[in-house]
Amino acid sequence: MDLKQLRYFAAIIDEGGMRRAADGLHVSQPALTVAVKQLEAALGVSLFSRTGRTLEPTREGYRLYAHARALLAQAEKAKSEMRALASLEVADLPLAATGMIANHVLARPISRFLGQHPGVKISLLQMGGPAVESALKLGEVEIGFAMHELDAGFEQVPVFSNQVAVCLRADHPAAARDTISWSDLLDLPVATLPRSYTLHARLLKEARRHSKSANIVLESDAMGPLTAAIEDGTAVGLLMEAAKPAGDHIKALPITENKGYHFSLNACWRKDMPLSVAGQALVGFLQENKSNTLLLKD
């Protein structure tokens, strides 16, 4: 039993006979007869009885008609939904990223993507880097954004690059420099991201390399506390340059050893779970716009 047989069978009842059904479907009457016989053979029941020249559905035929109409309607609904997904008329797209990336890299481009595709709904979850990878592995999100390389089970496509910067008040003694070294940074009180973030781990790695202790006085993935500490002069901020607090009263110094080196942000997804049409469209959009400075601020 297939949908074509059910469509032919339902049309015979809807049109009140073989000839009208054949005309409406643009097929021959023998083709309808074959379809009905195949259905009857597959189901083991008679679907029509003939009285003179009149073809009437049997009791079983009426029962099958109800099922056929429901199945055909469901098939049309499925086709309609798939067309809508393919054309991005409707889609749900779950994403995950660290708070810094979500707020200072993805916020504007995602808004613009949604403006181009009003039928798409995006759920963007904020979490630490390891949690992003876990959410991907568990299938909780379709795309995760990470600054570090994930394992070989993931596709990873660069969609943005930015350098690390030390953000500090313009009247800070170090603000007169063009760059600041890791060693000098380790002598200052620092506000940065929590331990679950790659940037925090990098600072600790540099502390070990320089045989110093990292003086982290504030760690948070919320920009409010970090910005306040930087603006009050309580600490300097170790952040991605894109996250520099706005205003001329704050200066962003590149790390001397890293000047000109940009960290890549990758869009990541499981290799065994290919991207949906909406996911492909978002990744393509981010790649096309990754060199646009308006991705950061405007």
Helix-strand topology string: HHHEEHEHEHEEEHEHEHEEEH
Number of domains: 3
User: What value does the average pLDDT take?
Assistant: 88
What is the architecture of the largest domain at the second tier of CATH? 3-Layer(aba) Sandwich
In short:
This protein has 298 residues and is of the alpha/beta class.
Any descriptors?
single chain, 298 residues, disordered C terminus, alpha/beta, five-stranded mixed β-sheet, 22% strand, 10 helices, D-Maltodextrin-Binding Protein, domain 2, 3 domains, 12 strands, Arc Repressor Mutant, subunit A
Note down, in words, how this protein is organized.
- This protein has 298 residues and is α/β, with parallel strands linked by helices.
- It has three domains: 84 residues, Winged helix-like DNA-binding domain superfamily/Winged helix DNA-binding domain (Arc Repressor Mutant, subunit A), CATH 1.10.10; 102 residues, D-Maltodextrin-Binding Protein, domain 2 (3-Layer(aba) Sandwich); 95 residues, Periplasmic binding protein-like II (D-Maltodextrin-Binding Protein, domain 2).
- It has ten helices and twelve strands.
- Strands 4-3-5-12-6 form a five-stranded mixed sheet, with helices on both faces. A five-stranded mixed sheet has the order 9-8-10-7-11, with helices on one face. A two-stranded antiparallel sheet has the order 1-2.
- β1 and β2 form a beta hairpin.
- It is rod-shaped, with a radius of gyration of 31 Å.
- The C terminus is likely disordered.
